[in-house]
Structures are given as C-alpha cells and as structure tokens.
Automatic annotation (TrEMBL):
<protein>
    <recommendedName>
        <fullName>Class I SAM-dependent methyltransferase</fullName>
    </recommendedName>
</protein>
<dbReference type="InterPro" id="IPR029063">
    <property type="entry name" value="SAM-dependent_MTases_sf"/>
</dbReference>
Amino acid sequence: MNLMCPARILLLPGDIQDATIGERVAQVYAGPFEAAAGSRLAEVLGVKLTVVPDLTQRPDAELQAIADLHRGETVVVLGLDLGLKLPATVEHTGDGWSRVPTDNELTLAAYEQAAAKFRDSIPKQPSPALAHLMDVLAERAGAGARVLELGSGTGAGALELERRGLRVRRTDAAMSFVEMMHADGHPADRLDALTDDFGGPYAAVYASAVFLHFDRAQLAGVLKKAVRAAPILAFTTREGSGEEWSNRFLDLPRQFVLWPEEPLRALLTETGWRVDLLTREDSTRGTWLQVLAVRG
C-alpha cells in the first residue's frame, strides 16, 4: 500500500512572468503552446521541463499520470486552467479535480465570517508607534496626496490617515469589510492584494497588519506590485520567525507569518524598496515592526 501524500499540482497561467513560487518544485510540465514559458520557468527553478502533447485534450488522464509520478511532491503545470482562476493548487476528489484553498484563502474566510467580532477586538486608537508611522507618511506624501490602503478592514486606519490630510482609497479582500465600510458611509473597493492590479499611480501604499498573512513568495509579489504603484510604502507586521495558526479573538483559524528584521529588509531590497524608517513596539499581540520604505 502506498501511504505517501498525494502530489500538489500547482496550475499557473501560460504567460507567467514571475517565477517566485515559494516552495520546492520537483518538475515543470507544460502543454505545447506553453513550452517556451515552461522552459524559462524550469531554468529559473533549476528543474526539468516535460512537454505534454495531450495536456489540454486529455486533462484528467494527464494530470492523474503526473500526480502518480510525484506523490509527496509539488509540481507546476502550465497551460491548463480547468475553468479555475489561476494560480490554483488542485487535487482529485474522486469526481474530478477541485481547487485546494490556500492558507491565505482560509485566513480570508475567517475575516469574512467574523468581521464584526474583529472590529470589537481591535484597539480604538492607533498605538504611539503606529501613529508616528502615519505622521511620517503624511509628511512625506504631502497634504492631499492619494494613498492606496491595502486591507482597510474596519476602515479605522483610513480615518486616521484622512485626519492627517491624506486622501485614501479604501480596499479589502474580504467583502464583509467592504460592506462594513459602505455601511459607515465610505467608498471602498474589493481588492485582493495577491491577485488584483493596484491601479494608480498613488503617492503611497499603506498596509497595517496585512502583510503578516502572506508567505514569502506572496509578499514578494505584493511588494513588486506596490513599487510600480507608488514611490512610498508604509506598513506594519509582526516580528519573529516561522509561521503560526491562531484562533485568538475570532475563534476561527488565521495564518500569521512572522518576520525577522534582516530577512524583511532583504526582501524589500530585492523587490525595489529602500527602508527609510523601521521601529518596533511591544504589545499583547507580540512585537510589531513599523516600516516606511521608498522606491529604491
């Protein structure tokens, strides 16, 4: 009996430009029309490429054959979407291939279900370090500057930024928070920082307690989009190492990715940013980093 875990099949668009995957990949597979993109990706990842001529004609059979070869491993497949929004990780349920929720999607689901409880759990006023970060951002951006806020949540941060003379585009990936901000009389857009375009240009991008829900590869992608959208980035995240899941406050699981200072600085540099301000502040929820970076 084979007790190995099933393969993780990561479906990516055939025109993929960013090879940041975030996990070890055993092999890249591609349909004939995606062979060139597959070759570039395989070279970057340092793995073998296999072109599958019948990938789109016999997707079930070809994916199952790939899965059987790579039990317990992660493989990338280009040129097959199965009607799903890409990127997507899929598994066979017995009735067909279905999308496996990512850690970020599970976290987002917690916010969708418990937006009101979250509002009750957060401080009513910004901490001294967060208030200082907002002050510096407002000074650097200038009065009346347009700021994109990622993960606006309840909208409390946007109100603080507006009190400092900034114009804020409120956004969140959770529709429950977008509706909450609408109910409070504020325009807000549903925007998933991982998958949606940021628009712009803006004077700055602001994200408080948002980046801690992204793994390294996801955060790298968000930072690259932010550097194209604005010359200034201000954000807060938890300091530490590793990842953790917590049911605290919402009674629903959320993933938290903790960052030591030096790897965070290195990632910012890699994605086109230069750290201009970094402070830390202890709280009952751990040590927080407040960062202001400028386009490098």
